[in-house]
C-alpha cells in the first residue's frame, strides 16, 4: 500500500464509523521514499481528539513500515462540513447521525443572528421523516446537535453545518 | 483503540500524545508555520495574543465551573462545549504569544505561571455569575463582541492570528446564538424569569464599555494591520444587543459606572484571583510535574 492508502484507512477516534479522510481532516499525504509527511486540520479549535488523531496516523504508517513520519497541523483554510465525502455522509447516516447539509454561505455584512431554529431539510436517519425539531444545539461533541423526529419520536444526532 | 481505559488509550503510543496538565501535552500548533510578520513589534504581538488568549481562558474556566450546575443536561453539554471551544482558542493564542515572545514560555507556562496582574483579559470574562441568567447575559455580550472582533481579525496580516480567528468565527456564531436564544426565552418568559433576566442584563451592562476602549497595543497593531481596533466593533455589537433585548422584551436601564481601569492594562477584580487560585493550584503545587 502507498502511504496515502494507509492513511486513508485510519478512522476517527470519536466517530469510528468514518475515516479521517472521509471527514476531510486529512489535507495532504506526501511520501518521500519511506518518509511520510501528513497534513491534518482540526474540526474545532478545542477538538480534544487531535493528539489521538496524530498518534493514530503515525502508528498506522509505522506499522505499515513507513518512517520517519511527521504529522503537521494546518489551521487555514478552516475545516468545513462541506469537506465530508459522500461515503462519509452515507456511513454517518447508517450509524444514526444525520449528516450535515450545505454549510451556511456568508453574505456581505455582519454574520446574522439566529433567534429561532433554522429551517432544516434534514431527514430522520431512522424513519426518513422530514418532520424533525432541535432539542439542543450542542451534543456529545461540539460538532453534533441533538434532534428529535416528530413522526417516529426517536431522538437522534445531527452533525452541524460549519 | 481500546476504550475500556480512555486515558490508557490516549497514551498507548510510542510518542508524547497526552491530554492534561502534567502529561507533556503542550503542542497545539505542531507543524504550523510560526514565522512572525515583518515590521511587527514582538512585545506588542505577545501582549495582543495574551489579551485575546486570556479572554478565552478565563471565560472558559467560568463556563467549566457551571458543569454539574446547569439547569438541564442539554445545557450542561452546551456550556462544556462552548468552554472547550474557548479553551482551544486560548491554547492556540497563548502558544502564539509564547512564540512571539521568544523567551521559551509555552502555553502552560503562560496559563499557569502568571500572577493576576499579568493577565490581560477584559473584566467581563472573570465576573462570577450569580445565576444562570447572569451567565447568559455575560455570554451574550462576550460572544457578540468576540465574534465581531474575530470576523475582522480573520483579515489580519499575521497569518496565524488570521487562521485562529477564521476558525473561531464559526464557533462563536453558535455561542452567540445559544446565549441569545436563552436571553429571549427567559426575558420573554414568565414574570419571574423576565425579572431575573432583566436584572442580569442590568448587572452585566456596566462591563460593556471596557470592551471598546482600545489599549495602546491594540492601536499600534491596528495601524500595522495585525489587530482590530475594538472601538470599530461598537455599531455591530449595539445592533445585535438591541435586536436580542427587543425580542426578550427587556429594556436596558441606565448603566451605572464601574471602577476605572481595564483588564487589558492588568487591572482586575478579585474574581480573577479566585479563578487563578483554582486554575493554577495543581501547577503551582507541583511545578513541572509529570505523571
From TrEMBL, chain A:
Pfam families: FeS_assembly_P, Zn_ribbon_PaaD. Residues 118-160 form the PaaD zinc beta ribbon domain. InterPro entries: Fe-S_Maturation_MIP18, FSCA_dom_sf, MIP18-like, PaaD-like, Zn_ribbon_PaaD. This is Ring-1,2-phenylacetyl-CoA epoxidase subunit PaaD. PANTHER family: 1,2-PHENYLACETYL-COA EPOXIDASE, SUBUNIT D-RELATED (PTHR42831:SF3), FE-S PROTEIN MATURATION AUXILIARY FACTOR YITW (PTHR42831). Residues 5-65 form the MIP18 family-like domain. NCBIfam families: PA_CoA_Oxy4 (TIGR02159). It comes from the Bacteria. SUPFAM superfamilies: Fe-S cluster assembly (FSCA) domain-like.
Automatic annotation (TrEMBL), chain B:
PANTHER family: 1,2-PHENYLACETYL-COA EPOXIDASE, SUBUNIT C (PTHR30458:SF0), PHENYLACETIC ACID DEGRADATION PROTEIN PAA (PTHR30458). GO terms for biological process: phenylacetate catabolic process. It comes from the Bacteria. Pfam families: PaaA_PaaC. One of its GO terms (cellular component) is cytosol. This is Ring-1,2-phenylacetyl-CoA epoxidase subunit PaaC.
Amino acid at each position: 500500500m502507498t502511504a496515502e492508502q494507509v492513511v486513508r484507512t485510519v478512522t476517527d477516534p470519536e466517530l469510528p464509523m468514518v475515516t479521517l479522510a472521509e471527514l476531510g481532516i486529512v489535507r495532504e499525504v506526501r511520501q518521500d521514499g519511506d518518509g511520510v509527511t501528513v497534513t491534518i486540520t482540526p474540526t474545532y479549535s478545542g477538538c480534544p481528539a487531535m493528539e489521538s488523531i496524530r498518534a493514530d496516523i503515525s502508528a498506522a504508517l509505522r506499522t505499515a513500515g513507513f518512517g520517519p513520519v511527521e504529522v503537521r497541523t494546518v489551521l487555514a483554510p478552516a475545516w468545513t462540513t462541506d469537506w465530508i465525502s459522500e461515503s462519509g455522509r452515507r456511513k454517518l447516516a447508517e450509524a444514526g447521525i444525520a449528516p450535515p447539509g450545505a454549510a451556511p454561505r456568508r453574505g456581505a455584512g455582519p454574520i446574522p443572528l439566529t433567534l429561532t431554529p433554522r429551517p432544516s431539510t434534514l431527514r430522520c436517519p431512522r424513519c426518513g421523516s422530514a418532520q424533525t425539531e432541535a432539542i439542543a444545539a450542542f451534543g456529545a461533541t461540539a460538532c453534533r446537535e441533538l434532534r428529535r423526529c416528530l413522526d417516529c419520536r426517536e431522538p437522534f444526532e445531527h452533525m452541524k453545518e460549519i | 483503540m481500546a476504550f475500556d481505559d480512555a486515558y490508557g488509550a490516549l497514551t498507548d503510543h510510542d510518542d508524547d500524545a497526552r491530554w492534561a496538565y502534567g502529561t507533556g501535552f503542550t503542542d497545539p500548533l505542531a507543524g504550523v508555520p510560526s514565522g512572525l510578520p515583518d515590521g511587527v513589534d514582538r512585545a506588542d504581538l505577545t501582549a495582543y495574543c495574551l489579551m485575546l488568549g486570556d479572554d478565552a481562558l478565563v471565560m472558559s474556566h467560568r463556563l467549566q465551573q457551571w458543569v454539574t450546575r446547569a439547569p438541564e443536561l442539554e445545557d450542561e453539554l452546551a456550556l462544556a462545549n462552548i468552554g472547550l471551544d474557548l479553551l482551544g482558542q486560548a491554547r492556540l493564542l497563548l502558544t502564539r504569544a509564547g512564540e512571539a515572545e521568544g523567551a521559551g514560555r509555552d502555553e502552560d507556562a503562560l496559563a499557569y505561571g502568571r500572577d493576576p496582574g499579568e493577565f490581560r483579559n477584559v473584566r467581563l470574562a472573570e465576573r462570577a455569575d450569580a445565576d444562570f441568567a447572569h451567565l447568559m447575559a455575560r455570554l451574550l455580550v462576550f460572544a457578540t463582541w468576540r465574534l465581531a472582533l474575530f470576523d475582522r481579525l480573520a483579515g489580519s496580516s499575521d497569518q496565524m492570528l488570521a487562521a485562529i480567528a477564521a476558525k473561531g468565527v464559526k464557533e462563536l456564531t453558535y455561542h452567540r446564538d445559544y446565549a441569545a436564544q436563552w436571553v429571549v426565552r427567559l426575558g420573554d418568559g414568565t414574570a419571574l424569569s423576565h425579572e431575573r433576566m432583566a436584572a442580569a442584563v442590568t448587572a452585566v451592562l456596566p462591563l460593556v464599555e471596557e470592551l471598546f476602549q482600545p489599549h495602546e497595543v491594540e492601536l499600534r497593531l491596528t495601524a500595522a494591520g495585525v489587530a482590530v481596533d475594538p472601538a470599530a466593533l461598537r455599531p455591530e455589537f449595539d445592533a445585535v444587543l438591541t435586536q436580542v433585548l427587543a425580542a426578550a422584551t427587556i429594556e436596558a436601564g441606565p448603566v451605572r459606572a464601574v471602577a476605572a481601569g481595564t483588564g487589558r492594562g492588568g487591572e482586575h477584580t478579585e474574581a480573577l484571583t479566585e479563578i487563578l487560585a483554582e486554575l493554577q493550584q495543581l501547577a503551582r503545587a507541583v511545578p513541572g510535574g509529570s505523571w
